Amino acid sequence: MAEGTLQRLENGALDAEGVIPLYLSDDHSLYWVGSFGEDEEIRCNSYLMIDGGQAWVFEPGGLAHFQPTFDKVSELISPFEITHMVVSHQDPDVCASLASWLQFNPDIQIVCPDLWHRFMPHFMVYHAQYQLVPDTGLQLPLASGGQLDCISAPYLHSPGNIVVFDRVSGFLLSGDIGAAAVRSDRLELVIDDWADQLARMTGFHQRYMGSTRAAAAFVARMRGLPITAMLPQHGQIFRGEEVQRFMAWFATLPCGVDFLDLDTQ
Ligand SMILES: [Fe+2]
Ligand SMILES: [Fe+2]
Description:
The protein is α/β, with parallel strands linked by helices. The chain contains seven helices and 13 strands.
């Protein structure tokens, strides 16, 4: 059933080589299809959403992630059935595999921030189709009757960054927001210890996120959304009340230009 799938996940029982279901219902499902290479510097969470005959890949990842994610998607559907790729920002660990996906299927639509649209052709030689998210956000209806809310979250960390709220599952696909360092010896997808989670997140958020003002604005924008889980592009998924614990921490975190002493750099 839908609600229990993510709640039941335990780090010790995860198969890093397999597809990991996070939300299952008749016409709307989400899976982890990310990468786990022991020698990878930055390990990426990619997510597959299957909804009413459409298939959406969130954060497809870098060049080396194409094959493992392709293989995992193939366990569930034909990769020809992928209709959309959603990228939160322009970084290579998010976008560098796009060319491989489009070479395979040029009909895939790329959902990305409007701000990065003109840079996307530098990742590929193919003429791609886009759905562009302006600073004011974009609501995308789903085939099942659900909806994705693409919400601008600028300077976290990219100037044109977006997050996506899935109104069916209540999952917030948060890109680098909430990203954490990972262990090299085993896959961990859920949080076992909050103090340990904070230690893994702090350095990244202090240096990579734009400013405390940007963080606080994001947290205010999320207020009122019925978020059941937050799924970052790296590290562990926040479940239930862990989401609000993260928001409370992030809203006042000295980060970016508020963290660096720019006058002495
Ligand atoms: Fe990034
Ligand atoms: Fe990233």
